[in-house]
Amino acid sequence: MGLLEGKRAVIFGVANDRSIAWAISEAFHAEGAELAFTYAGEVLEKRVRPLAEGIGAKIILPCDVTKDEEIEKVFATLKQEWGSVDILIHAIPYVQTSRQGFHLAMDVSAYSFVALARHVAPLMEGRKASMLTLTYMGSEKVIPNYNVMGVAKAALEASIRYLAYDLGPKGIRVNAISAGPIKTLAASGISGFKDMLHYVSERAPLKRNIDAEEVGKTALYLCSDWGSAVTGEVMHVDAGYNIMGM
Question: What is the model's pLDDT at position 96?
Fold first, then answer.
């Protein structure tokens, strides 16, 4: 029996087969979880639907997380089809914030997790459920070219702690993974990303970069019974880079 046998997980944020959200999905699927997916717009649907159908997902829904009515439709469908949800994965990237402004960056990167949590929590009560989001070290320290996203991720990490406190009495755990740089669609929008990869691999204690599969394995730990006493945490998966001072 897999670690997530009998569990149901909804995944927000798959962009393509190289995205962190997809690596998490594969890890969950391998351990027996039943998965549902969302996508934002027709372009992403063309990428997400074949991947989701390829692992047997039956629920694949549109969702723009800036629109409450679309979030409501997703969870109304999940309630009707599943009745309950065990795991929520929030892995929604947004990198071109300079054009859209501070409000949109905060909405997509930080508030959307709160909005999803509010709607999924009633479907999770009493199930030893788990919510997981993705963040980045730009929330803690200045990362050139990351800009307002660092501020938005800092707000997201604070939200994790407050959600963990609010939802803990209902048996719901809330955590985040702070992953090191990985070649993904979202990362391609960050200026100087290749230099960042080289810099981290030289200075991280493990002397290398990480891959999406390693993030998936950590997500599996945090969302399974193996992480049953872990909540409100930001777990770094970055080959140790975050501990370095100079």
Answer: 46
